[in-house]
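Researcher: Re-running this chain for the archive, since the previous output was lost when a drive failed. Same request as before.
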Amino acid sequence: MALETSEIRRLIAGHKLRDMLFDVLGLIIMLLLLFILGALFIKLAIDGWDKLGLDFFQNYPSRRAARAGILPAWVGSLLVMLVTALAAVPVGVAAGVWLEEYAPKNWFTEVVEINVTNLAGVPSIIYGLLGLGLLVHGLGLGPSVVAAGLTLAMMILPVVVVATREAIRSVPQTIREAAYGLGSTRWQVTRDHVLPYSVAGILTGVIIGLSRAIGETAPLITIGAVAFIAFLPPAPIDASFPFVNFDWLSTPFTVMPIQMFNWVSRPDPAFQQTAAAAGVVLVALTLLMNGTAIYLRYRARKRIKW
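Model: Regenerated structure tokens:
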């Protein structure tokens, strides 16, 4: 009996040692990757620091590096991301809720689940070709802001659906059973209990998808984004009734990754500095989006009482 006890203790100690080694290895790899990312960002910031100023955000692109700015690029990026979020988030969250809470367990649901999972790994250029054929030519939208936003929405839609399903699965079944026991309907359980408890995970998936979309170049080039543009789309808000203007949806556009690609491809070294400054702004926007997601997730979890 004592021999069996000592053998069990040795097995437990061996498993604990392997777990500790795995934790240390994972920590080292994470710190190494963070160091590489930090070094690259610092190098980017050093190269483009002199260009970062108010004029850089207010100027249009120019053939002279000293006058070049990112005004149409960052405005175009914000408008495209607005369309992407408005199209992908409601549809993705609704699809995730339906698959997890309402869909019957049959062959059709299994086919949908398999396709959603597979679409999350499709290269972005494929979505660009889909947007070109379906939106630009099929629906006649042309190379416009709405076509770009819908193309990126199709690209991140599987990510939002999968994140929504995983967040809903994390809600304990006892919460549903307690709500049903008090006479709640399925929709009341989903609206008042499941979604509030899963909103933190849903927000995380949404921001991950939007962070991926804001840096994409291939699908937007495929649908015909302009590399050099010297005007702004009409403002979405108008001073006269009905105070909302939709003309900006059909205008040509450019985004920050495409503007950076245009500058990097030029032989003048001064444009490399301008592209580095634009890269700093793009990374800052991505970090701001992720920081907002962390804050909203923290607030959502703080309001939840288990």
